[in-house]
Amino acid sequence: PAKKKDIRDYNDADMARLLEQWEKDDDIEEGDLPEHKRPPAPIDFSKIDPGKPESILKLTKKGKTLMMFVTVSGNPTEKETEEITSLWQGGLFNANYDVQRFIVGSNRAIFMLRDGGYAWEIKDFLINQERCADVTLEGQVYPGKGAEGGEKVKNKTKPEKAKKKKDADKKSDSIKEDNRATKQREDL
C-alpha cells in the first residue's frame, strides 16, 4: 500500500502523477489531442489525379503541420527579409491562411502552416512575389519571380544531396590513398 502523503508535501513528480491519474479516465476530443496522437484523416482516392503527384501530397498533408523555406532574392539584410516576409505573411493572413513566420538567415525564412493541405496554394502565392527567389516544399525547390536567370530551373530537387555524396566519395578515395591525419585535416 502506498504511503499517504500530506498534500503540502507533494513535489512536482507527485503532482504530475496525480494529473496523470485524473486524465486517465478523461475523454479527450480528437481536436484537443497532440498532432502525433491524432488518427490520420481518411484519404478520398477519387480526388487524386494520377497526372499530378502534388494532389497526393495535398491530401496526405491535410490537417498536419508543414514547413516551407522561402528565399528572398537580391542580397537583403535580415531586417529587409523580416519586412518583406512580413508583407507576404500579411497577404496570406488576409486570404485566411494561418501561417507563422520564422527568419532563419539574412535571406531565408520558414513559413509554418497548421494545415499542410494549403501548402501548394501558399507556394503559388509566394513564387509570384517579385522578391521571392525560391520556395522549398517537401524537398522540391520551386523558383520564384525574383530568381536570377541562372536559377530558374523548373521544379528542381535539392542538389545538396548529390553534392554531399560526391564529396563523401572524394573523401573516402583520398583516405584510401593516404591514411595520414594531416591529409584528412587538409580535406576538411
Structural account:
This protein has helices at 12-24, 53-61, 78-94, 119-127, 160-177, 181-187, and strands at residues 66-72, 99-103, 108-113, 132-137, 140-143, 156-157. It is of the alpha+beta class. It has a domain at 52-139: 2-Layer Sandwich (Alpha-Beta Plaits), CATH 3.30.70. Strands 2-3-1-4-5-6 form a six-stranded antiparallel beta sheet, covered by helices on one side.
Layout: helices, strands, pairs:
Elements: H1 12-24, H2 53-61, E1 66-72, H3 78-94, E2 99-103, E3 108-113, H4 119-127, E4 132-137, E5 140-143, E6 156-157, H5 160-177, H6 181-187
Antiparallel strand pairs: 1-3, 1-4, 2-3, 4-5, 5-6
Q: Could you list some keywords that capture this structure?
A:
188 residues; Alpha-Beta Plaits; 6-stranded antiparallel β-sheet; 6 helices; alpha+beta; flat
